[in-house]
Structure formats: C-alpha cells, structure tokens
Amino acid sequence: MALMKFRSPLRGASPLPAFLEGVSIEVMPRTAAGVGDFRDHLAAGTQVFVAHIDGTGSADMHATVARLAAEGMRPVPHIPARIVPDRATLTDWVAAYRDAGATSALLLGGGLNAPKGDFADSMQLLDTGLFGDFDRLFIAGHPEGNRDIDPSGGEAEVMRALAWKRDFAARTDASMEIVTQFCFEAQPVIEWANRLRAAGIDMPVRIGTAGPAKLQTMLKFAIMCGVGPSLRVLQRRARDVTKLLVPYEPTDFLTAIAGHAGATPDFAIRAAHVFPLGGITAATDWLARNGAND
C-alpha cells in the first residue's frame, strides 16, 4: 500500500475517507494474540506496527511479525534503542525481522530513563548501517514536544534530531517517514507540521491518533504517555456530564487534519496512525464506519 494521494473531495463530502486510505495501526504481541485473524479486521497490505515494550520477549516480537506477514499485513516492528543490549543482538533482531517478512521498521529511542546497552537513540541505530535494505524506515515525531529530549519543554533538540535524520536520508537515499505519538487537537498539530516544513524537514508525516475508548481509559493513557497541550480536549470533555459515558472517537480530530491536508498540497501530514487504546476491534470498526477500506 503506497503512501496515499489525496483526491479532491466532492463539495460537502467528508475528506476523512480519502485520508484514511493509507491508515496504519499499532499492536503489541500480547494484544495481537487476542485477534483471531487480522484479515477479518484490516485490508490486505495494511501497515501494522508492532510495539516493543520493555519486558517483551524478542521471540514474541518475531512471531508476531511473522504472523502479520502471513496474514497479508505489512508488519513494522519497533526497535527501541535503549532496549537493545548490543550490536550483535541488534543484528540478530534485524535479520529475524527480515526473515519474518518485515521490509520496514520504526526506530526510536524508547521510553527508558537510561539505556540498557550500547544505544541511546535512533540516530545511533541508523549509524550501524544495518537497515540499508529495508524499503522504509520510520522515525518518531513529537507534535507536543518530548521532555525526555527537551527537558525545558521546547523543541530545539527534537528538531535538531529530525534535521539529522533528514540529512541521513539525503546522504544514504533511505526512504524515511515520521510517525507521531497520539494527539487530540488539530490546530497545534497543524502548526507543528508547518514548523517542520519551515525548518526544511520534508519527510512525510503519519499523525498518531487514539482509537475509540472510554474517556477514563483515554485520560489514563494520555497522562501516562505525556500527551501535552491537546490533553485539554479530553479535560473539557470530562467536564461535560453528557459525554462522560460516551466513548471518545477521533472523528473530529482527523476530519480537521484531513480537511487541511486536502486543501494544502504541501502539508506534511499525509496519513493517520491509530493507537487502539480501546481495543483493536473498536478501532477497526471505527475505521470501517469511516470509509477506510472503501
């Protein structure tokens, strides 16, 4: 499934179905184990990212990647730098993912306070040269900043890292794409995407969004993952007693992003990435209702 190209929507039609043509989704090995067959939920060729959380066994990661490939999906394993013990282990993981059917990977620092081994960030992973035959490499984006990288709350170091990766792609001819943490408010995301372009960072962006979930679940994950300014969308919703029992859905957020993307040809954000916080079935049902597989 190639990166999507936008169609001009009919007057009055929602821009969301076209935007969702290139959607991807994220799973963990333990959540994937609860899905009978991904072909019952997702279109063939959908990119399914496999999150490697600290404590997850490498065998479980490799098995999940192999299973997704066998079921017609395009698996994208996470490789968190701070979890990798050493270069030899990284070499083994990359070979195993390749053998299991992965042709791309998401390289990121990982959420640990300190590295467990030889690598501290995704730039060091890229510098190993082990990913040269992957079709595409994904890197992390942070529309609301990342205090692990910029403790002051700014974005100077985050932008510096993205510029380094842009230059890496230029000198190695690597195909690279940014995928972000989930957000809830469109305008700050649009402004961040515009700052990327102004800084000369021209890699396409896959915007993270939370799938349908109870408001309490959404607030828990948002706080746990350090979601910043757009958390106020959930806080406002929590103050409205009429919405407390109604699951959050990303329809308004993604429709706003999709509308801006459709009207702005050089807009950085070209696709969505779904975190199924309320469960894979809830997320894929929402995608189907909103035309993702039309």
From TrEMBL:
Keyword Oxidoreductase included in the entry's annotation: yes
Identification of the protein by name: Methylenetetrahydrofolate reductase
Keyword Oxidoreductase found: yes
Gene3D superfamilies: 3.20.20.220
This protein's UniProt keywords: Oxidoreductase
InterPro entries in the record: FAD-linked_oxidoreductase-like
